[in-house]
Amino acid sequence: MEYLHANRWERLILTHMLNLCIFDFEHQYRTWFYNDDRQVYEAQINMFNSLFWIERQWFFENQYYRIRYSNIATLYSTNPYRFKQKKIGSYDLDTKENPVHHVCIHSTNAMEKFVDNFRNVTELTLFDTFDVSCDSIVRSLNRIIPLKQLSTLSLDCHRFPFDQVIELLNSILFYRADSISIQQKSTLEKIQLLVALFSRLEYFTINLYQKDLETIAKFLLSKFNNNSRHLSSLCISKQRRDLIEKLRILIEIEKLPDDFTIKFINRKLYLWW
């Protein structure tokens, strides 16, 4: 719960970010939720209701849902600048808020309750606990959201077969997409296929095997790759810190982007150029 210290956020903002207008925040906490644990958590998040946050009109909501044998607690910022979001888990609150623009699905079993509920969705996230069934994933998802209008798709599920990824992408008018996030480890061949399909990509989040770093980086950053000409931001997730130096050296030796920024944050490597 390191990031749930509201007083630390207040001191940071007052000391270094006096002109901050938007505080867009989401934090997930997985727990067994014994009574003492839940009391500590709720006392912590209640600190975000102080006068400091109210004066700036920075408001928060929290939601609980169960995933298999544990519980997920989510604290997230709300209006005026965050589109409403709905999380579909094993046990859900009966929410009918409209419009919901972002749907996060943790469980396929819970989807039946939400047929035709989310007609305004433009962003979809499938989490690691999402079980891909033998039935058509496209047909199942289309029952609750209109896939053709999605502009952002995040696949945070490592057991998602790549052929079903392609089936899902082919069902969406996704060739205009500028952002794709895939947490499953991908090979160069898979990356090449995705970039060929979505030549308007600007922001790309991937996971890879370290042995493939050089070939994938050269492919994505090449000035002669017409399909990736719009790409300006790359995130490589679930990596070790030493990868940052390997990538920096590769870029400088190969003279890939002329001007770039590279950072390592919370096991994710970020590259902007």
TrEMBL record:
It comes from the Eukaryota. This is Uncharacterized protein. It comes from Rotaria sordida.
